[in-house]
Amino acid sequence: MYKIKNALNILIVEDNPGDFALISDYLEEQISNPSIEHARNFTEADVKLSVQGSGFDVILLDLTLPDKTGEDLIRDTVEKSKGAPVIVLTGYADIEFSIRSLSLKASDYLLKDDINASSLYKSIVYNIERKKSNQLLEESEKRYSNLFQMSPQPMWIFDMENYKFYQVNKAAIKNYGYSEEEFLQMTLFDIVPKVDVESVKKIDSNLESVNVNLYKGRYKHIKKSREIIDVDIYSNLITISDKIYQFVISIDITEKVLYEHKITKAIIKAQEDERYEIGAELHDNICQILATSQLSLELLSDHVPESSHKWLHKTKEHINLALNEIRKISHRLAPAFFDEATLEHAIAKLLSNFNQKKQFTIQFNFDDSISEIHLKTELQLNLYRIIQEQLNNILKYAKATLVNVGLSLAKGHIILSISDNGVGFDTSTTEKGIGLSNMKRRSELFSGEFDIQSTPGNGCELTISIPMRHAEIN
Question: Would you say the pTM of this structure is higher than 0.85?
Answer without folding.
Answer: no
